[in-house]
Specification:
This protein has seven helices and eight strands. The chain is an alpha+beta fold. The model has no long low-confidence stretch (mean pLDDT about 95).
Length: about 230
């Protein structure tokens, strides 16, 4: 069952250490089979050196119950499930503790769009979700992390397809995409623009790039008349 998706999720997970986005086991990737309502995700605490496709865990989207695999799924599984339930276009979700993205999350600040690199991939600032309350942490930390991300996008009127990532206050980034590979791609980009933004802020800049510049760069790659790349 789910052999192809297992391979995709495995390769996406292995891309995290290759791209320098994880230290030890500080990250995970999942993918979803929407037709079957099943999610494949990295097992909790298993090193990337020891990871194989058959060690990935399959969970039920609706219930979160283990369907395949003898290992425990990632401790962040409930967060992934909340995102899949809320955003039907998602095919993959990534969580890392990459250094520069975490710095903005620990500062509890949105990541401003200071320039065109950011605007090519994220429509506007990358939001930092609010801090969870003590009650939310105690009740169900991982599930409520997902709920707060969804709340952030709903309250701000954000399109999850146009802003494929978020910062969780005091925690770190989650990114997503139409596939596990695309979700990792967005994790790489988020970390890079977070690094650029930190240097930009250190040089004294406060204002984001002009709206018309941001819009031009986003639309030329993602708009109805996009013309970036080969068609």
């Amino acid at each position: 069952m789910l052999k192809e998706l297992r391979e995709q999720v495995y390769e996406a997970n292995m891309e995290l250490p290759r791209r320098g986005l994880v230290t030890y086991t500080w990250g995970n990737v999942s993918g979803i089979d929407r037709e079957k309502g099943l999610v494949v995700i990295k097992p909790s605490g298993v090193s990337y050196e020891a990871l194989t496709p058959d060690k990935l865990v399959v969970v039920d989207l609706a219930t979160g119950a283990n369907v395949e695999g003898t290992l425990n799924p990632s401790s962040d599984t409930k967060t992934h499930l909340e995102l899949y339930r809320a955003f039907p276009s998602l095919g993959g979700v990534v969580h890392t503790h990459s250094t520069h993205a975490v710095a903005w999350a620990q500062a509890r600040q949105d990541l401003p769009c200071f320039g065109t690199t950011h605007a090519d991939y994220f429509h506007g600032p990358i939001p930092c979700a609010r801090e969870l309350t003590a009650e939310e942490v105690e009740e169900d930390y991982e599930k409520n992390t997902g709920c707060v991300i969804v709340e952030t996008f709903q309250k701000r009127g954000l399109n999850a397809g146009h802003t494929p990532g978020v910062l969780c206050a005091s925690h770190g980034p989650f990114t997503w995409g139409g596939s596990p590979a695309e979700a990792v791609y967005h994790a790489v980009v988020l970390e890079e623009v977070a690094r650029m933004a930190l240097y930009t802020r250190l040089l004294g800049a406060q204002s984001p790039a002009p709206d018309y510049v941001q819009e031009k760069h986003f639309q030329r790659k993602h708009g109805p008349n996009a013309y970036y790349g080969q068609r």
